[in-house]
Amino acid sequence: MVTQTQDQDEGLDPELRKLAIVVLLGAVMTILDTTIVNVAVKSFADAFEAPLTTIQWVLTGYTLALSMSIPITGWAVARFGAKRMWTVSLVGFVTASALCGLAWDVTSLIVFRVLQGAAAGMIMPIGQTMLAQKAGPRRMGRVMAVIAVPAMLAPVLGPALGGLLLEHLSWRWLFFINVPFCAVALAAAFRFMEPDVRSAVTAKLDWLGLLLLSPGLALVVFGMAEAGEGEALTGFKVLGSALLGLLLIGLFVLHALRRGDSALVDVRLYRDRTFSVVNLAFFVYVGALFGMMVLFPLYYQVVHGYSPLKSGLMTAPMGLGAMITMALSGRLADRLGSRRLALTGLPVVLLGILCYTQISYDTPVAVLLGILFLIGIGHGTMMPALMGGMYRTLSPAQVPSATVAGNIGMRVGSSLGVAALAVLLQLALTDRFPDSDGTLSAVPADLPHSVAVLFTSAFTHTFWWAFALAALALIPTLLIPKHAPDTAPKQPVAQDSA
After folding, report:
1. Are residue 399 and residue 292 in the same domain, yes or no?
2. CA of 323: how far to CAs of 147, 309, 310, 379, in Å?
C-alpha cells in the first residue's frame, strides 16, 4: 500500500529536513574523495618513490571498489535497515580514511583506498533511498536537490580542496580531513535518524547476480579508466576489460529477468517509460559533464600554466551557479514536472559548452569564468529535475532497487565520458603535434604563443565532442512523459514465486 498520502506540497517537514541534513553531511566527503586526490598524483609518487603506473591505482582502486559495492546496497537496506547500514558504511569510510592517512607505503595506501571506496559506494545510494522513501513523489524534486549538492561539489571543489591541502599541509590530510566531517555526520545520524523498522521478510542475497554484476561493472569502469590514461583502445586492458565486463552485465540482465524483484537489481523497472528515459538522459548527461570537468582544469594547467590549486578554483563559478538554481529548480520540478525543468536547463548547459568551443588563447579569464557560471545555472536547473523524475512513478518498495540502478548508470556514464573525452583530446593533440606521443607529460609551464594556440585548438576541438555528447541527452529528455508531477506512484510489481 502506498504510504505517501500525507505529502506536504508547501514545503519539507522538520523530520524530512533533518534527514536531508544528515544525508548531505555523510555524502559530501565520500563524493569529494573521488576527485580530491586527482591533484596529488605527483605528491604520492614523490612520497613513495613509485612509478605513475603504480600510483594510478590509488585513484582507480577507489573507483573500482565503489562501483562494485553499489549493487549490494538494495539488499543490505532490505536485510539490515537503512539507518544501520548508513552508520556502518560511514564508520567503515572514516576508518579507511584514517588508515589511508597513516599509510606507510604505496601498497598499504592502495589497499586502504579500496576499503574506503567499498564503504563509500553504499553511502550515497542509501541516503538517496531514505530521502526518496520519506519524501514521496510530490516533494521528490526538493529532496533530490539536496543529493545534487555533493554530486556537484565533487568535480568542482575536489581538485581545489586537494590543491589547498597539498600547498599548506601534506598529502595525508587529503584523508584525515574526512574524520571530523564524518564524526559530525555520525553524531547527526544517531540524533536525528528514525530507528529502522524490522521487516517480517528476511531478504536473501542474490549471490549469482552479485558475482555477475559487480565484477562486470568493475571491468567496464577499469577499461574506461585505462582508456583515459592513454592505453590503446584495441589493447586488452581497454577493449578486453570492457567487453568482458559487458558480457557479465548482459548475463546479469538475463538472470535478473528470471528472478524478478528478488534479483540484486530489478531490471524490470526499465519497463517504466519515465524511469528508463530519465536514466538514459542522466547517463548521457553526466558523461558529458564529468568529462568537461576534467577538461576545464586541464586546460588552465596546460595552456596557461596554472597551479593545481588555481586551476581547481577556476571551476568554482560552475558550482556557484548550480547552487543558486538547485533549490529553486527542486521546488519547480515538484510543481511543473521533470520534463519542463530539464528542457530549460539543458539548453543553457549546451549554450555554455558551445561558448567554450569558440574560445581562443587570448580569451579573457573573466569571460571563461562567466561561461562556467552559465553552465552551472543550467546544471542546477536540470539536475534535481532528472534525479527526482526517476522516482515519480515508482512505489516506495521499488525505490531501493531504482536507486541502485540510477547510481550504477551515473558511475558508468561518468567513467565513459571522462575516458572518451580524454582519448579524443589525445587524438587532437597527436594531430597537431605529430612528433609527440599525444600525452600531456613534460609540457613546459611557459608555452610559446604559437604552441599555446595549437594546444587551445586541441581543447576547443574536444569541447565540440563534449557538446555533441551533451546534446544527445536532449533525445531521452524529450521522451520524458508530460504527466502531472503529483501522479500517484504505481503499486509494486508482484513478487515472483520462489
Report:
1. yes
2. 12, 21, 21, 9
Dump pLDDT digits (tens) for 236-246. Answer: 667 777 788 88
The single-letter DSSP state of residue 240 is I
Name the domain count of the chain: 3
pLDDT class for 39, splitting at 50, 70, 90? low
Segments forming the whole domain that contains residue 230: 206-263
Half-sphere exposure of 55 toward its Cβ, with a 13 Å CA cutoff?
Answer: 16
Q: What percent of the chain has pLDDT over 90?
A: 6
DSSP 56-125: HHHHHHHHHHHHHHGGGHHHHHHHH-HHHHHHHHHHHHHHHHHHHHT--SHHHHHHHHHHHHHHHHHHHH
pTM for this entry:
0.73
How many Cβ atoms sit within 10 Å of the Cβ of residue 100? 26
- How many Å apart are CA 30 and CA 12, to the nearest integer? 25
Helix axes 365-389, 316-336, angle to 10 degrees: 30
Is residue 83 included in any domain, yes or no? Answer: yes
Residue 286 identity (one-letter amino acid): V
Domain termination site, one of 220, 238, 263: 263
User: Mean per-residue pLDDT for 36-42?
Assistant: 69
305, 308, 377, 303: which is closest to 346 by C-alpha? 377
What confidence tens digit (pLDDT) does each residue in 54-106 have?
A: 666 777 677 777 777 777 777 777 777 778 888 888 888 889 989 998 988 88
With beta carbons less than 8 A apart as the criterion, state whether 32 and 123 touch. Answer: no
**Contact call for residues 77 and 89 (beta carbons, < 8 A):** no
**At which residue does the C-alpha cell 567513467 appear?**
415
How many alpha carbons lie under 13 Å from residue 475 in its C-beta half-sphere? 8
**How far apart, in whole angstroms, are the C-alpha atoms of residue 310 and residue 307?**
5
Rg of the Cα trace of the chain? 22
Q: Is residue 198 situated within a structural domain?
A: no
Q: What span, in angstroms and rounded, lies between the C-alpha atoms of 149 and 146?
A: 6
Copy the grid coordinates of residue 439. 600525452
| Helix 140-168, helix 365-389: angle, nearest 10 | 140
Residue 283 identity: F
Half-sphere exposure of 86 (CA within 13 A, CB side): 30
239 and 362 inside one domain: no
For residue 18 the three cell numbers come to: 533533518
- The span from the CA of 178 to the CA of 95, in Å, is 9
In a domain, 213, yes or no: yes
